[in-house]
Design brief:
The structure is a homodimer of 303-residue chains. With 303 residues, chain A is mainly β. Chain A has one domain: Acyl-CoA thioesterase, double hotdog domain (Porin, Beta Barrel), CATH 2.40.160. Chain A is 14% helix and 35% strand. In chain A, the strands form two sheets. In chain A, strands 1, 2, 5, 6, 7, 8, 10, 11, 12, 13, 14, 15 and 16 form a 13-stranded antiparallel beta sheet that branches. In chain A, strands 3-4 form a two-stranded antiparallel sheet. In chain A, strand 3 (58-59) and strand 4 form a beta hairpin. Chain A is globular and about 55 Å long. The termini of chain A are far apart. The interface between A and B is large, with 49 and 48 residues. Chains A, B: Residues 178-298 form the Acyl-CoA thioesterase-like C-terminal domain.
Amino acid sequence: MAQTSNGTLAEVAAASTAGPAGLSAGTIGDSEFDRDTAVARRADEPGVYDAELSAGWTIINAVNGGYLLALLGRALSDALPHPDPFTVSAHYFTPSQPGPAVIRTESVRSGRTLSSGQASLFQYDAEGREVERIRVLASYGDLGALTGEVCTTAEPPVMPPLAHCLGASDGPAPKIPGSNAITDRLHLKLDPATVGWALGAPSGKGEMRAWFGLADGRDADPLSLLLVVDALPPTSFELGLKGWTPTVELTVHVRSRPAPGPLRVSIVTRNLAGGFLEEDAEVWDSADRLVAQSRQLARAPRS
Amino acid sequence: MAQTSNGTLAEVAAASTAGPAGLSAGTIGDSEFDRDTAVARRADEPGVYDAELSAGWTIINAVNGGYLLALLGRALSDALPHPDPFTVSAHYFTPSQPGPAVIRTESVRSGRTLSSGQASLFQYDAEGREVERIRVLASYGDLGALTGEVCTTAEPPVMPPLAHCLGASDGPAPKIPGSNAITDRLHLKLDPATVGWALGAPSGKGEMRAWFGLADGRDADPLSLLLVVDALPPTSFELGLKGWTPTVELTVHVRSRPAPGPLRVSIVTRNLAGGFLEEDAEVWDSADRLVAQSRQLARAPRS
């Protein structure tokens, strides 16, 4: 699959996923997502990158964890010899806020098919001291070098076609405390079976399903999948819990390069206990390939 | 749930899980598992621990990854202010061998309910230089301080009672290349539906289920759950693949203190693709609580 910008594919994708905001079509390397996850390597400090956390990806009272993971993933993609995230494990320490950040990476080991590294994202306190927000361990490889062999029993989520799913423009805005800015960056169409929370009638099931695209039509790539797994409303909304569901730990496996076109995302919570819950996400591409799997441990909202 | 040694509970557990080796009953704090995962804090180097990797926990050509995770988990339990692993993410770089090892820990952040840290396990090369085997990020808490609230849709695995499942003493030893030493440390009784691999007739399904106990009857605790999630034969055996399935990354969520008595472990692989596979494990205790969830990314065997 070509990872370089491809006019024809991008146009097709833009036509199928362009959001109501009518933003100009973004292509891989030249999009809202790419601009807002850009990192600048410091010339005098190897492995250190400056970044600006965009206010455009905030939700409730913090910057979205998937967006942050993509930003860390981009730094590691530059720092490590292999290009693609295979497995990325992130532990979230403190909520990130829009503004400047610095990412410090460490290359731990370089093997033939996999290389491994670590990265931390810091912001600054009132005295200008670095405060660590997130730390990540990751193993990178080359998805293009994998064999084509697929032996899977997993099946794509059962959900209505995109045209029958519901987005931000299809009804009154649901009541979410704080910022909802990320909504404008995404072309998210929720399975009607999992929108009860927005209408005051949560299903009681820990499930959330949606068609996913970036609002400017940029296609998915391995890096953006790190965002995708954490970009839906939390399953806790459908369990009748409002408020923020802060991620403690999130691990993503990227299993294949996504084909162009909209993605399907299914998130399931099976065990809410003792004030914590897991969210298991699967991401399927337009070619019916399971392209990413993730699991996170999060704190349940208090309500 | 009392974590201290309890004669009566330990005797019950020993009676129900004592292995054919006829080992003396082990209790928490005084067992094969505790002896072999012991770590010795260096007096002159804060956060550094010496350990001896036991040959008793080897499988095929390396020390078992779950055993190693428990060893790292024990060091972090000492180094961090909170006692119990809540989520532990490990990236495995090089295979560990029996013999001396050193664990270097770092306390990253201490919060009220969670503290986070990092640990690496090193061994020595021929020149005595440290070689990093595994690196771990972890968030610890106090399972005893969690609310009793449980809202779960997950169900225990459907499998026959322990007496109808099959262990090492119930048939000829299956052909496994290299060491099989870990078998003697465990009282593992496999669901007959997932033992086809040992008889030359793998089911073709990526499933493995077993009743789990330690051979000396020691009860499970949060630390031993880090072993349990990686102690069954790999699901790839039932997919007809022989040989080693090296773990790239393994993340465990410990969700509750396990009740005394045998555990049920279910492992499922849904996506074997491009030479990699995931293994999702669930561990259920004798009180029907989901006590641990894990996922690993592993390389598929070549055969």
